Amino acid sequence: MNVLEVKGLYKNYGNREILKDVSFHVGLHEVVGFVGPNGSGKSTTMKCIAGLTEFHQGEILVFGHDIQKERIAALREQSSLIEGPALYPELSGKDNIKLFASLRGVSKERVAQMIELTKLGKHINRKVGQYSMGMKQRVAIAIALMSQPKVIMLDEPTNGLDPSGILDLLSMVKEVAKTEEVGFLFSSHTLSDVEKIADRVIYIKNGEIVDVSTYEKSQKLTYQLKLSQDATQVFERLSLTYTYHEILTEYTIDLDAHTLSDVIQALQEANIQIHEISKIEQSVEAMYKDIYHDED
Fold first, then answer.
1. Structural domain boundaries of the chain?
2. Fold of 214-295
3. Rounded-to-integer distance, Cα 241 and Cα 67, Å
4. pTM, two decimal places
5. What pLDDT band is residue 247 in, cutting at 50, 70 and 90?
6. Checking CA distances to 24, which of 95, 112, 144, 245 falls within 20 to 30 Å?
7. Confidence bin at 278 (pLDDT 50/70/90)
8. In terms of Cα–Cα distance, which of 237, 201, 229, 225 is closest to 276?
């Protein structure tokens, strides 16, 4: 089930086309990474979804509600965390949550759930102005979840966080995606964060969604092989790029001119047994470099 559908989105600024046929979806319980350099159209797309800017053609459905035709219903089904958490620094984390809950008519039981979700313990009673950025983000996500939206957009949520804060935030988002009836659109320039959390990744370039299949076909295929013995001579004879973990008798190889069947045949001819073969998927960073290499 899709909680967000973007279909054929176009937007112009004057004579300049900013978005060109942008289409994608976010499913229930899914975290979708949304990646692109500055000026790619990423922020504009998110603003269109949030109803903060108009678009000239296309359709945005938030849990089935058209953002143009059913604006109030579509906005009710989404929450956004963009450019840092907007909290009251003189109030405690708990009082911030209770304040937003009162504005939305949320039950005391739901408030208690959101307070528990932050995992701030006794710190929930401290003033937010004394919080680290990571603590503020956790309170802000709890508030975003308060009214049980179907879509949450997070724009650069790990900015300004220390490593511990990043891990806590990513863990919180993963937990929420599993336990709540929601889907996330997660935008970040920190590709390692996207890789850790995203079920899949959407790339946008010059206002268009990139067809990653065209890049995947041109990629080196990387495999991990667990073997019965040292196969260094075989791989060198085939001129393969490889790394070797001696203790595990495990190799990671990149296939260029050769196919996997060529390698298997060469190993069999050398009487080397193959215990395990697994394909290593390309990283988000590697894909990003391939897609945006001409923009460096």
1. 2-210, 214-295
2. Alpha-Beta Plaits (3.30.70)
3. 51
4. 0.78
5. confident
6. 144
7. confident
8. 225
